[in-house]
Design a protein that fits this description.
The protein is mostly helical and about 450 residues long. The chain contains 16 helices and 2 strands.
Length: about 450
Amino acid sequence: MGFIIAIPALIAAWMSLRESPARAFLNVYVPVLLLLPEYYRWVIPALPDPTFSEAAILPVAWVFFSREARNWKFSLLDLLIVLFALAVGVSQYVNAGYGDAQNLMFDMIGTIVLPYAVAKGLIEPKGLRVVFARRFVFLLFVVSLINVYEFKMGITPWSLTIGRLFPGQGEGWVTTFRYGFARTAGPYGHAILAGLILILGFRIQRWLEWSGYWEPRFQGLPDLPLPKARIITLGLLAGILMTLVRGPWTGGIAGAILTATGLARNRKRALLLMVAGIVLIGVPLFSAFLSYASVGRANAKTDSQETAAYRYELIMKYWDIVMERPQLGWGLTTWPKVGGMPSIDNYYLLLALMHGLFADTVLILIILIMPFRLIRHDMQQPPPARRGGSLGFTLAGVFIVFGVTIATVYMGMTAVPVFAILAGWAEGYLLTAPQTHAVLRTAPALASRPFSFRRVVV
């Protein structure tokens, strides 16, 4: 039944050609990415095995570039994204040969390069900022509602339904438990990935709510006691809590702190206070954490301390292995395993093991450079009409969420194209003329007029 993966791709191709790549991106690709698991593939002999989202992005990107390539604005982030994909692909070719490298390089193109490029070229240049943000957030709100079933029953509805069409696939992605409760994963494979993605949606939802980009009530449900925006915010918060994942929660707090500086009336002073807080409070806390984590798992007094000690030992024991092959790593699945430590709960370390320090450095550069550029950009713009309406600070917070979270957990599957899309959106935002930002702040509904999205309920 793997051929059903081609159905969204065919719909995306039809919509891209008949209407526009923008409509196909919003109405096909984004829902497919956020609602269908990435661990189901169409296995095609001698060819790469696409997932739902990888198949759907291909026609959107093809039509987009055939029509818009002449308008493309090259930037440094384009180079970093391509270098990251190439570093991973070359590493796999050197370590495992052409067959494995073919599949992984296709994954890098379908989950990193093309989602980034399409998001960069469509969301801001086509005035789809608010429409995209609303679509992204509302779909995650739907996932949060469906996840209530998994939280109660201990099994995800996606495996009960779609899993039957892909026998033998996705069986390793099972619901895990903490404190006696199911950690909801939804369609994202694992609770840590679900927690990360939902927190990203929560950050964008807060920007939408602060900016007044939601209708007062749900259509057809005028008697609900809370406004639509607040219900969506609380629904996403409940979804985040049901994942029971400490790493993404930590990243979410860090992202919220940075985003909060954009709420201040004096943003420059708020940023200086934040930096001072990091130096005066963060450094001693980090030193205390090292003392807390370095006791060793055998001497840990609590489960939390044992988890921290495990992550500390990971770095100590695997760093020497990284340095044996620092340029290109050991390959996707062929890196040496240390006994008793099969899980690498630090994506920076895992990436260095798999694909070398060059790929790791490129990813770190993306995560560090983008918040700096976004904050600098928004500091040079007039204050937004509504407090909290600073998109640059929100997107900067998104990169901080990613950067902190993947220092404690794995990053994969749906989280990868989501990262690429948000990076593309941010880059498009930075390259858009300031007067366009002003128009979108004062008249968001106009952004959707070329594609008649004013009638979209979500």
